[in-house]
Amino acid sequence: MRFGTKGDGTRQVEAALRRATRGMAMDRIPLRDDELSLLCDIVQSPSLHLTAAKRLILDRLLERQLVEPATGPQDPAHARYRLTEQGQAMIDGLGIGITES
Length: 101
Description:
Number of helices: 4
Order of helices and strands: HHHEEH
Largest sheet: 2 strands, antiparallel
Number of strands: 2
Strand order of the largest sheet: 1-2
């Protein structure tokens, strides 16, 4: 999947995220929609290409320690980023099942 092209899986994830956070007080929503979307994109395609706007979002996720560079021996050779344990826990807490592509 090319980054920026939303397939059915990404649309389903984004819809689930909106349902999971609907009606919650703003201070209880841990991430913005664009941050959640990028987290899901990283799980589905860790070799994604980033636009300048997406790079700013990634910088926020890196700062919050939800994403880290994929440099470990367990990471696929094409992977550039991966979720940290904290990032994965945030996705899991929303009850969203995402698999790598």
